[in-house]
């Protein structure tokens, strides 16, 4: 189960192309293809760099008119599916910069 | 295999490349172009065993690096494909021209194309009035048979089994002037098998020359039809693929895409498929394996082609 503080990032072995507002993905590992549209595509675009679930929810909340709880539940469910299919992976939480 | 005079070189054109060979390659198209630095050199010599084992082995393919792949067959044929520029052939004594052609300009040339950054689509193509229609599909889908049927309708063969097409200009390059047909299929079309050469000693499949019906220059590709064998299909039917599905289909149908990761070209192929799908419409065409359906299938393909700018095709 993902928490708001968890960070995820697109798996480097997933190829993607932007087509008319949707994202076409190809998993080199599995050989499977996926077509992400609308909100799913917007989430994918934000996963090229490690991103926390909270930041992702906040970003979507600025775009879509929906209650925070619903956005959070939908994002967690979708990310879990991406994790399950090997399209994203968990990213390490960055350690704080050492104090000088 | 026929030897040339000592030092004599033979020049051919294939898939937009100029080839220079130490021996005659009778199934290719001669070219008068003899540049100092041809795109591809084909040399015949012994290949010594490598010092280090291949990093990846897949069937007969031994990939040492993206720029070095060996194909080693149980019958002793060994072809080294290097740098997208050179194919070295080590063939057993008496190895036949037709069998060598099957491998050298089948899998080996496909690897060379991958190394050159122009992945070949698993497709055959016919030209009507200087415009091309491609028939793609997995092995056994009926690509060559369908192209042969299209030739009965006025088409000229552009290429069989592998199609090199630019995703920028949508220009399709000519292959060689023959196609591989099963003996019973060739007979059905009335093609004489008397002098036809077998694809391999074990198969009743032949290289059938497209006598007088070969298009030897590039042609703008108007449409790609992907054949899907469906035994329950009573009449052929077609569906235009949305671009995301077209990308997936083209990407999957690149010849030997399954080893592309080890050739370092996986991402390039996906990019190629994405660009090509934005240039050329892709259809999925279901057909049965009933040869009596061929007229209906060619009617359907020509209708699709004409709707996308293909010039012609005759009704039977």
In short:
Chain A is built from three helices and six strands, in the order ββββαβααβ. With 100 residues, chain A is α+β, with helices and mostly antiparallel strands.
Largest sheet of chain A: 3 strands, antiparallel
Contiguous helical run count of chain A: 3
Order of helices and strands of chain A: EEEEHEHHE
Q: How are the strands ordered across the major sheet of chain A? A: 5-1-6
Structural class of chain B: alpha+beta
* Percent of sequence in beta strands of chain B: 25-35%
Query: Given the helix and strand composition of chain A, which structural class is it?
Result: alpha+beta
- Describe the global form of chain A: globular
Task: Identify the most extensive interface between protein chains.
Answer: A-B, 11 and 14 residues
Number of strands of chain B: 19
Rounded to the nearest angstrom, the distance between the terminal CA atoms of chain B is 41 Å
Q: Overall mean pLDDT score of chain B?
A: 92
Give me some keywords for this one.
heterodimer; A: 100 residues; alpha+beta; three-stranded antiparallel β-sheet; 3 helices; 6 strands; 36% helix; 26% strand; B: 316 residues; 2 domains; nine-stranded mixed β-sheet; seven-stranded mixed β-sheet; 7 helices; 19 strands; globular
Could you characterize the architecture of this molecule?
Chain A has 100 residues and is of the alpha+beta class. Chain A is built from three helices and six strands, in the order E-E-E-E-H-E-H-H-E. In chain A, strand 2 (14-19) and strand 3 form a beta hairpin. The longest helix of chain A is centred in the C-terminal third of the chain and has 17 residues, at 68-84. The mean pLDDT of chain A is 91. Chain B is of the alpha+beta class. Chain B has two domains: 10-116, no CATH class; 123-307, no CATH class. Chain B has helices at 97-116, 143-151, 183-188, 243-252, 260-263, 266-279, 294-307, and strands spanning 10-14, 17-21, 29-30, 40-44, 56-58, 61-65, 68-72, 78-82, 86-90, 123-128, 131-136, 156-159, 171-172, 178-182, 197-198, 205-209, 219-229, 237-240, 282-287. Chain B has a nine-stranded mixed β-sheet, covered by helices on one side. In chain B, strands 10, 11, 12, 13, 17, 18 and 19 form a seven-stranded mixed β-sheet that branches. In chain B, helix 4 (243-252) crosses helix 6 (266-279). Chain B starts with 9 loop residues before the first strand and ends in a 9-residue tail after the last helix. The model of chain B has no long low-confidence stretch (mean pLDDT 92). Chains A and B meet through strand 2 and strand 3 of A and helix 4 and helix 6 of B.
């Amino acid at each position: 189960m993902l928490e708001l503080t968890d960070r995820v990032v697109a798996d480097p072995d997933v190829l993607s192309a932007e087509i008319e507002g949707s994202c076409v993905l190809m998993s080199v590992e599995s050989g499977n293809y996926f077509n992400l549209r609308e909100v799913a595509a917007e989430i994918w675009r934000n996963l090229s760099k490690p991103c926390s679930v909270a930041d992702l929810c906040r970003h979507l909340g600025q775009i879509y008119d929906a209650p925070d709880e619903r956005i959070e539940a939908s994002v967690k469910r979708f990310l879990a599916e991406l994790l399950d299919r090997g399209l994203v992976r968990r990213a390490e939480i960055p350690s704080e910069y050492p104090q000088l | 295999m026929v030897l040339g005079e000592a030092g004599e070189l033979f020049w051919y054109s294939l898939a937009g490349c100029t080839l220079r060979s130490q021996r005659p390659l009778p199934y290719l198209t001669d070219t008068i172009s003899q540049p100092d630095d041809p795109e591809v050199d084909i040399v015949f010599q012994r290949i010594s065993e490598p010092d280090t084992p291949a990093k990846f082995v897949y069937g007969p393919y031994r990939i040492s690096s993206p720029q070095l792949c060996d194909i080693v067959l149980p019958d002793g044929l060994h072809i080294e494909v290097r740098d997208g520029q050179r194919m070295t052939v080590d063939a057993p004594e008496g190895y036949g021209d037709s069998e060598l052609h099957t491998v050298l300009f089948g899998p080996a040339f496909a690897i060379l194309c991958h190394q050159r950054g122009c992945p070949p689509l698993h497709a055959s193509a016919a030209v009507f009035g200087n415009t091309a229609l491609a028939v793609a599909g997995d092995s056994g889908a009926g690509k060559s048979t369908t192209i042969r049927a299209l030739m009965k309708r006025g088409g000229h063969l552009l290429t069989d089994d592998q199609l090199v097409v630019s995703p920028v200009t949508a220009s399709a390059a000519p292959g060689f002037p023959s196609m591989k047909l099963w003996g019973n299929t060739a007979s059905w079309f009335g093609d004489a098998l008397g002098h036809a050469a077998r694809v391999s000693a074990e198969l009743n499949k032949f290289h059938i020359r497209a006598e007088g019906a070969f298009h030897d220059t590039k042609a703008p590709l108007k449409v790609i039809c992907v054949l899907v064998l469906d035994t329950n299909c009573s009449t052929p039917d077609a569906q235009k693929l949305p671009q995301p599905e077209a990308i997936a289909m083209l990407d999957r149908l690149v010849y030997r895409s399954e080893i592309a990761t080890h050739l370092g070209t996986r991402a390039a192929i996906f990019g190629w498929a994405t660009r090509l799908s934005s240039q050329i419409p892709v259809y999925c065409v279901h057909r049965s394996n009933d040869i009596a359906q061929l007229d209906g299938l060619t009617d359907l393909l020509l209708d699709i082609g004409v709707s996308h700018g293909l010039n012609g095709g005759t009704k039977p």
